[in-house]
Amino acid sequence: MKTSSRLGLAALALVVAVGGGYAAWRATGNGGDAPKYKLAKAETGPLTAVVSATGTLNPVVSVQVGSQVSGQVKEILVDFNSPVKENQLIARIDPETFQYRQRQAEADVEAARAALGVQRAEVLRAQANLAELQRDYERKKLLVDKNFISPAERDKAQSLFDAGRASLQVAESQARNGEAQVRQREAQLSQARVDLERTAIKAPVDGVVVKRSIEPGQTVAASLQAPELFVIARNLTDMQVETSIDEADVGRIQTGQKASFTVDAFPGRSFSGEVKQVRKAATVVSNVVTYTVVVSASNPDLTLLPGMTANVRIITAQKDKTLKLPNAALRFRPAGTADEKKSTVAAAPAPTSAAGGGSGGGGPGGLASLRERLVAELKLDAEQQSKLDAIIDGMRDKFRAARDLPEAERNKAFERNRAEIREKVAAILTPEQQKRYAEMAAEAQAARTGGSTSGRVWVVGADGKPQALSLRLGLTDGSMTEVVSGDIKEGSEVIVGLQTTAGSAKPASTTPGPRLF
User: Fold this and answer.
1) Tens digits of per-residue pLDDT, 165-186?
2) 8-12, 22-26, 120-124, 384-388: which has the highest mean pLDDT?
3) Which of 11, 263, 336, 420 has the fewest CB atoms found within 10 Å of its own CB?
4) How many CB atoms within 10 Å of residue 119?
5) Is residue 3 helix, strand or coil?
C-alpha cells in the first residue's frame, strides 16, 4: 500500500513538472510567440559615396590618317606600334599616273605661254598699223584744208584709222585672254604637283601607330570621304576613360573629382585619375539617358592599352569620420505596429548610386516595400493600386534577371529598370501626386549628394519591444548611411532583422527594393 502511494505521488510530481516546464517554455517565447531581433551597432568611421560605371580607354589625341587621292598602295613604311615623327613618310601610293598628269600640265603651260607670245606680237603689229593709219589721216586732213584733195579721201582715211583702232583693241583682248589661259594652265600644273605630293602619305603628328588598315597592292578609292589608312595616337602616356553616367547620377559629378578604375587585364591593380570633362550631349538608349564623363588616366609605363574596358569609381562625397548605420536597419520595420506602413516609408534608406552594387535588387519583399511606400506616400486609390501591381509584376522578372549579371552590366540593367518604373508610375498619377512624386525624387537626390533626408530605425526598448527613433540621414555608400542627427550614439544597437531561433536569422521583412529615384 505504501508503495502504491509513493508511485502516485511520483506520477503527480512528474505531471506538475511537465506542466510547469511547458508554461515556462511558452512564457520565454520558445513557442515562437515572442520574436528575437538581430542587432547591429552604430559606428564611427569614414564614409565615401561613389558613382560606378564602365568606360573605354582612349588616347587623348588620336589622329586618323587618310588619303586625298586614289590609287594603288605601292609601299608601306610603318607597322603597328611603330613610333613616328611629324611629316615622316609612312606610306606611298603609286605616283606614275600623277607624274604623267604633271607632265601634261607642264606642256599645257608651255603651249599657253607660246600662244600668249603670238597674241602679244599681234598687239604690237596692230599698234604699228594704227600709228600708220593715224599719220595718213593727219596728212589727208591737211591736204583737204588746202583743197589739194577731195574730202572723200579724208573720210576714207578716217574710216581706216577707226578700223585699225578696233583691231588693236581686239588684239589686246586676245592677249589678255592668253594671259588668263596661262594662269589657268599654271593652276592646273600646281594642282597636279599637289596631287603628286599627296601620293606620299606622311604622319601629321608625333606618336605611335595603333592601327593600320591597308596592305601593299591595295587600291585606295578617295571619292566623297578620305579612307582611313592609319590611326596614330599622339601620346600613349596620357590617356583618358570615356564613361557613360546615368542622368540620375550625373548631377553629382563635377570636374576635378577624384576617380579610380580597374581593367580586366590587371586584376587587383587600381589606377587613379580625375574627372576632366562632363559632356552635355546626352545619349538615349532604351529610354535611359546617359552623359559622357571623361576621366584622365596617367600611363607613364605604357601599361594601359587603347580600347581596354575600365571599371570606374568616381568619388562624389567623402567624410573621414562620421556616425553611420547599416542600411538594413533603415529598411527594417516590425510587424504588427500601428504605423507599419508609415514606418516603411520613413525607414526606406536614401537611394544609393550604382556603386551600391546590388542595392537595386528586385526581390519579392523589395517590390512589396516599394508598393507600400508609393501607396502610403502618394495615397493611391484602388484603380491606381491595381495598375501599380501590374507594373510591379511586369518588372519583377527583369530585376531578378539583372541580379545574375556581372556588376558593371547589373548596374546598367538596374538603371534601365528603374527608369522604366519611373516612367510607368508617373503615367498613372494625378498632377498633385506627380508633384509629390517629384519631391520624393528630390529628397533621394539630396541624400545621394550629401544632403540630409529623414529616416527611422528601431531599437529594443526596456520592455523588450521595438521602439522607433527618427533620424536625419546624410550620404550613403550603398551599405552604410550617415546619421546627421538623432538619438543614436556610437555603439547604440539597432534592429536589422528577425531571428526565428537562436541559431538562425530571418532577414528584415523589407528587403532592398528597386532604387526608384
Assistant:
1) 999 999 999 999 999 999 999 9
2) 120-124
3) 336
4) 19
5) helix
What nine digits make up the cell of 185? 594652265
Helix, coil or strand: residue 68: coil
Can you give the three-state secondary structure of 206-223, one letter per residue? CEEEEEECCCCCCEECCC
Q: Is the dihedral angle over the CA atoms 350, 354, 358, 362 positive or is it negative? A: positive
Angle at 360 between CA 417 and CA 516, to 5 degrees: 60
Q: For residue range 340-349, what is the model confidence (pLDDT) as tens digits?
A: 444 333 333 3
Strands 480-486 and 493-499: unpaired
Residues forming beta bridges with residue 502, ordered by sequence position: none
Helices (H), 86-150: 96-145
Residue 231: CB partners within 8 Å, gap ≥ 6? 62, 63, 64, 65, 209, 210, 211, 213
CA distance 430 to 409: 34
pLDDT digits (tens, 9 = 90+) for 307-339: 999 999 999 988 889 999 999 888 888 876 544
319 in Cβ contact with 475 (< 8 Å): yes
- Number of separate helices (H) and strands (E) present in the chain: 10, 20
CA 465 to chain centre: 50
CB atoms within 10 A of CB 387: 17
Nearest-angstrom CA–CA distance, 345 and 374: 8
Task: Find out whether 275 and 294 touch, Cβ atoms under 8 Å.
Answer: yes
Residue 465 CB: number of other CB atoms within 10 A? 12
pLDDT for position 473: 87
* Angle, CA 390 vertex, CA 335 and CA 384 arms, to 5°: 80
Cell numbers given for 55: 568606360
The answer to whether the beta carbons of residues 13 and 20 sit under 8 Å apart is no
Residue 447 has pLDDT above 80, yes or no: no
Query: 407-427 and 382-402 helices cross at what angle (nearest 10)?
Result: 170
Give residue 340's pLDDT.
Answer: 47
The pLDDT of 223-237, averaged and rounded, is: 87
SS3 481: strand
Quote the CA–CA distance of 296 and 275 in Å, as a whole number. Answer: 6
Distance CA 476, CA 448 (A): 7
H or E stretch at 375: helix 364-378
396: Cβ contacts below 8 Å, ≥ 6 apart: 362, 364, 367
